[in-house]
Design goal:
Shape: globular
Helix content: 40-55%
Number of helices: 14
Order of helices and strands: HEHEHEEHEEHEHEEEHEHHHHHHH
Strand order of the largest sheet: 4-7-10-1-11
């Protein structure tokens, strides 16, 4: 029996989580999302629902790693696919692979044996990293993952390749994946090395609105009794989100990030005291992606602020005897200071096209750069 996934558009509230998931779904370069929050707040439900929105992929037929058939992109292909002149092509859904906490290293990386190979060649049985290539690798309670698996994920995430060695023989295959981890912070934190590998973080809490909670009850009961009816009721919303993701991905390369916002991002990260440069890059990529999701080809200040709210929380450094830093306070201090400078100059940085700040609602006047309506998918 298969488990029916609740449609993405049927999830009540959790706007930040849904926005972050759409961003990583639209842009593969946003290669990780950490979801922190209370138990029972639709974290796992939303992640699984995202996979249903993603477009199908072309893969080399029969390839256990789902390699792309493009001969001009050999770096993303395994040795076998790289040697094929005209491979057969098939289509598949973007894989969503769950990594269970109790998994062994062999199950994740795959097993390599030379003892059973009569011709002396290694026999390799692919693992979860092979299945997750070009897809989503999902870890529930990622903060409880064993250290040896964390090390394995860090190596694969850094190189995009999984290597397995045994008895002097090694096998490697492409392992590019979007890492999505959910966790309850009450059960412990992440190792800093893994935490920094997530491009974005979304925080979820249970709704305090009674009407929303009643709606959640109704949808949960309806989904348990007749999931097909629930899917039908949200078919239009699902189709709109699928279109939004596809168009955002196509639009992404044409989205401009003005130089003043690049400097603003760099200054913000310096002011926030984050280590390294991953935060700067994540904010820039997320800002362009959020603009693309809102139907625009130019980043606005609201996109930068929204992107920073997703890229900074898990990177802020706490000091001994001080409370954990609040990302909203950091952003308020930075942008209030920037607004003060703008007021003194009589101009607003990045506002050359006359548009209002975007924020999560997709633009001040509701129109994209081409004069058409810009649709916001934040609240679907």
């Amino acid at each position: 029996m298969t488990t029916q996934t609740l449609p993405f558009s049927a999830i009540v509230g959790q706007d930040e989580l849904k926005r972050a998931l759409l961003a990583v779904g639209a842009n593969d370069d946003l290669d990780g999302l950490l979801v922190r929050g209370e138990k029972g707040t639709a974290k796992s439900t939303a992640v699984r629902a995202l996979a249903d929105l993603l477009p199908e992929q072309e893969v080399v037929a029969g390839c256990p790693y789902g390699c792309p058939p493009d001969p001009d992109d050999p770096a993303r292909q395994c040795d076998s696919c790289r040697g094929r002149d005209d491979p057969a092509v098939e289509r598949r859904s973007v894989p969503l692979v769950t990594l269970p906490l109790g998994a062994t290293r062999d199950r994740v990386a795959g097993t390599l044996s030379v003892a059973d190979a009569l011709d002396g060649e290694a026999s390799f049985d692919p693992g979860l990293l092979a299945r997750a290539n070009r897809g989503i690798l999902y870890v529930d309670e990622v903060n409880l993952l064993d250290d040896h698996l964390v090390d394995l994920l860090l190596d694969a995430a850094a190189s995009g390749v999984n290597r397995v060695e045994r008895d002097g023989v090694s096998v490697e295959h492409p392992a590019e994946f979007t890492l999505v981890g959910t966790m309850n912070p009450e059960e412990g934190d992440l190792r800093p090395q893994l935490r920094d590998r997530f491009a974005l973080q979304a925080t979820v809490v249970g709704s305090r609105d009674v009407d929303d909670r009643v709606e959640i009850i109704d949808r949960a009961l309806a989904g348990g009794d007749d999931p097909e009816t629930v899917a039908d009721a949200h078919r239009e919303g699902t189709a709109a989100l699928e279109t939004a993701l596809r168009e955002a991905t196509d639009r992404l390369d044409s989205v401009a990030l003005p130089v003043e916002f690049k400097r603003d991002i760099a200054e913000l990260c310096v002011d926030a005291g984050v280590e390294g440069h991953r935060a700067d890059i994540a904010i820039a990529r997320a800002a362009r992606t959020l603009a693309a999701l809102d139907g625009r080809t130019k980043v606005l200040e609201g996109d930068v602020r929204e992107a920073a709210a997703l890229a900074l929380p898990h990177r802020l450094q706490s000091r001994p005897f001080d409370d954990d830093p609040d990302v909203d306070d950091v952003l308020d201090d930075h942008f209030d200071e920037a607004d003060g400078r703008d007021d003194g100059d009589g101009e607003q940085d990045g506002g050359g096209d006359g548009s209002e700040g975007a924020g999560g609602d997709g633009g001040g006047d509701g129109r994209n750069d081409d004069g058409g309506e810009a649709v916001s998918y934040t609240h679907l």
